Amino acid sequence: MDKREQFYKKLNKKLKKDTVFPAKYLFKFIIPASQEKIKQVEDIFDFTGAVITKKSSKTGKYISISVLVVMKKAEDIILKYMEAEKVEGIISL
């Protein structure tokens, strides 16, 4: 099992232990400043009722994206993180 799999397994266990679903969940990402990359992240949460806020870094090279959305179960959260991994240069917080 690689580090990524271990991380998701641990996150799944923690979410199931500490969270009563459905629950509001806050995703936080940092991406290189690019309209294309912003759109990719927004598309992941399309049609979910998510509230998305964006903030540029001081230098304007990066964008911080916060996504507040109601999630039905821990596995759904992990699936969203896995989708987000496909965005080049993304950092999940």
Task: List strands and helices in order, with pairings.
Layout: H1 3-18, E1 23-32, H2 35-44, E2 51-56, E3 62-71, H3 74-84, E4 91-92
Antiparallel strand pairs: 1-3, 1-4, 2-3
Percentage of residues assigned to helices: 25-40%
The tally of helices reads 3
CATH homology superfamily name? ACT domain
Quantity of strands, as a count: 4
Summarize the entry for a quick read.
By secondary structure, this protein is an alpha+beta fold. It is 40% helix and 30% strand.
What does this structure look like?
- The protein has a four-stranded antiparallel β-sheet with strand order 2-3-1-4.
- The model has no long low-confidence stretch (mean pLDDT 95).
- The protein is built from three helices and four strands, in the order αβαββαβ.
- The chain has a single domain, classed as Alpha-Beta Plaits.
- The protein is of the alpha+beta class and 93 residues long.
- The radius of gyration is 14 Å and the shape is globular.
- It starts with a helix and ends with a strand.
Task: List descriptors.
93 residues; alpha+beta; 4-stranded antiparallel β-sheet; Alpha-Beta Plaits
